[in-house]
Structure formats: C-alpha cells, structure tokens
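hey m, so remember when u said the tokens were messed up on ur end? i reran from scratch. heres the input so u can diff it against urs
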Amino acid sequence: MFKKLFIILTVTIFCLGVSAIAPRPAQALIQIKITDIGYKDCPEGVGEGSVTSGGSALPATCYLVTGKTNNTSGKMLYDADVFGRIYDANNEPALQNRTRLGALPEVPPGVSDFELRISVPSNQPTPLKLKQFKATGFSSSVYPSF
C-alpha cells in the first residue's frame, strides 16, 4: 500500500515538474498587410560593404525598402517577419533563395510606415521590382532581447 502511494506521488511530482519547464504554446501568427512598397538608396555611410556567397565577397549596394504596414488586430505586434520577392531589371531574383527579408521589432495597430535595409549585389541592374510583400507578427515578443 505504501509502495503504491509512493509511486503515485513520484509520478505526480514528475508530471508537475515537466509541465513547469515545458515550452508554452506558441503565439498565433497574425497577418500584417503591406502596401505602398518602394525602395531608395541607403543614406551616405550606411550599408557600405559586400555580400558573401560561397566564400567569395561581391560588392553590394544598400537599399532601404519602404512601405506601410496595416495591423488590423487592434494590438501591438512584435517580431514581425517581412517576406517578399525582389527582382532586378531583367526579372532575375536579386536575393537568391531568400524571401524573408528581415524583421520589424514592433508593429503598432493601424497603418504605420516602415523601412527595412537590404543589400543587393552591385551587378544586379536596376530598377528593382518588389513583389508579393507581406508580414506576420506575434502578440508578444518571441525573440530574446539582450
């Protein structure tokens, strides 16, 4: 009898311990509409450098992608990933195998402006074509802040 009680108590304590350290359920992704997409050259001194691919460095051009977010959730959203496709003047992908372009730390409710820095290999002919932009955010922060 005492052995059964000990086993039940041990299992109960184990289950409570595991549930206390188990990850919490992920927050639902909330869609954010992006409109008025455009781009401009980075300001002087910002984004100078190169793009590394396959171990070799290529000269890069810095651009700021601009637009408006429309957060219809009614609450502040955090860690919003921005996705889109960027093509050069010849309809070739400017960022190979990459649709996630960056993240916005906060997206307030309603319509707001955003800027996102990208680096494109300098040999890509302009004007760039920006297509299929969207974003998804969370109702609470998901990335650790240091």
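this time it looks ok to me. The chain has one helix and seven strands. if urs says something different then somethings off w ur setup not the seq
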